[in-house]
Design goal:
By secondary structure, this protein is an alpha+beta fold. Helix content is 38%, strand content 25%. The two termini are 28 Å apart.
Length: 451
């Protein structure tokens, strides 16, 4: 496909899977057996018929050339996006032109492709015309912001009193009171329009049941929550950048007002986390020319993967604009000038000692920061008693893996990729340790997704 330049790898395709079950089922359909009339076009589309349990095969079509990431259409009843048939067809396409040759799209595929691109063009046109409309009333917006600030201040003041009561009565009372006390406090913060405070209160509620040493962890998190409360209550005396960070941590909305930076953005990692109401997708990008690191956040209802879906190792020619705040890496993806395409770009790496120092420096700007994105150069995964660490191949230093990372299948994928030899690893470095997300072998080789 001329717009894609190089076909995707199997790992890049499987990175699109919404869950492990879909990844496994899609892998089984990545062979020619169940497929017929499969084809592809130079415009970046793939289609095919997949034999299923019914009398009629499933019609599957994929638009790979969409700048926002691949889009899918399948006649199967699955509610997952992409479904196993779309994954299987992409795996078949990634294997070469033999099974998915260049061809003329059938009517059913052509109709969906044309309709989808026409709809996208209408949205662009509507957006362009809407941008010239009159802006919202700035005075009304200012009054709304003032009313919300008053409510947040009342919530933060109440939370300070509740933390003081907890410490005065002793931390043992938190274990006896159970989770209900924390949920009721979190609900009060939601009423105060401070969702960031509510989320941190709910995290406190899980600590008493987290195992040995929980009183120390609870005291640490209470101290950080107290610091955030005080930051809000005294925000007028803070530097502008730190004040923006406090506003963000409390949960007040902000827009990406930084100047857009056009670059070739390498997709370093993408993974989802879910709670009972929301799925959050985190996508880490590295600017090949600017050297900047950016974090894209997107959200979706539970059971539906958020967009965009960007496989690790692809490069976006796009604008990215930063959100306000001291040391904040969150950004917004702007105009994209070409579809995502494979590339051989790798981010520069640092030593484990430099990674730990980088996290320490970042805490000065944002004391509530759990971790920072870091690429480690020439490290070897090695057992460390009952745990694991990433040891520098050229120095006597190492970083322990975060507890959650030790239980993931990605750890064994990393160990297999290394085989005792140095590898380059991108991940998140924080006070709990290092969480590996993507790795590259020494020399040439594709990125391996670990999350």
């Amino acid at each position: 496909m001329t717009q894609q330049g190089v076909r995707w790898t199997a790992d890049q395709v499987l990175a699109l899977a919404p869950d492990a079950a879909s990844r496994k089922a899609g892998s089984k359909l990545g062979a020619a057996g169940p497929w017929s009339e499969a084809g592809s076009s130079d415009e970046g589309t793939v289609w095919g018929l997949c034999k299923g349990s019914g009398s009629k095969p499933y019609q599957t079509v994929i638009d790979i050339a969409d700048a926002a990431g691949p889009a899918y259409k399948c006649s199967c009843p699955s509610r997952k996006f992409p479904c196993k048939h779309a994954l299987g067809l992409l795996l078949l396409w990634a294997d070469g032109e033999g099974a998915v040759p260049p061809a003329q799209a059938p009517d059913w595929a052509e109709q969906w492709i044309k309709g989808r691109r026409q709809h996208a063009e209408e949205k662009r046109t509507a957006g362009a015309s809407g941008s010239s409309s009159a802006p919202a009333d700035p005075e009304a917006a200012r009054r709304r912001a003032e009313r919300r600030a008053v409510r947040v201040t009342a919530g933060a003041t109440e939370l300070e009193q509740r933390l003081a009561d907890l410490l005065r009565g002793g931390l043992a009372g938190a274990e006896q009171a159970g989770y209900g006390m924390w949920e009721e406090t979190a609900a009060r913060m939601v009423d105060a329009q401070a969702p960031g405070l509510a989320a941190r209160v709910r995290e406190l509620g899980a600590i008493p049941a987290s195992g040995p040493g929980w009183p120390v962890r609870l005291l640490e998190e209470c101290a950080l929550l107290h610091l955030l409360d005080q930051g809000w209550l005294r925000r007028e005396g803070l530097p502008d950048a730190l004040s923006d960070t406090v506003r963000s941590r409390v949960g007040l909305p902000a827009s990406a007002d930084g100047p857009p930076i056009r670059d070739r953005w390498l997709v370093l990692a993408q993974y989802d986390t879910a709670d009972v109401k929301l799925t959050t997708r985190r996508t880490w990008l590295h600017g090949a020319d600017s050297g900047r690191t950016a974090l894209l956040l997107s959200y979706g209802a539970v059971g539906r993967a958020p967009e965009p879906a960007l496989p690790v190792g692809l490069v976006l020619d796009a604008d990215v604009a930063a959100y306000p705040g001291a040391g904040q890496l969150r950004a917004s993806l702007g105009e994209q000038f070409a579809p995502p395409a494979p590339a051989s770009i790798r981010p520069p790496g640092v030593t484990t000692a430099e990674a730990a120092a980088r996290y320490g420096e970042a805490l000065r700007d944002d004391p509530w920061l759990d971790s920072v994105p870091v690429t480690l150069d020439r490290v070897v995964p090695a057992p460390d008693g009952d745990s694991w660490q990433l040891a520098d191949a050229d120095a006597d230093t190492a970083l322990p893996l975060a507890p959650a990372a030790r239980a993931r299948p990605g750890l064994w994928r990393l160990v297999s990729l290394s085989g005792g030899r140095p590898v380059k690893v991108f991940g998140e470095c924080g006070h709990r340790g290092f969480t590996p997300l993507t790795a590259w072998p020494e020399g040439e080789g594709e990125a391996v997704r670990l999350c």
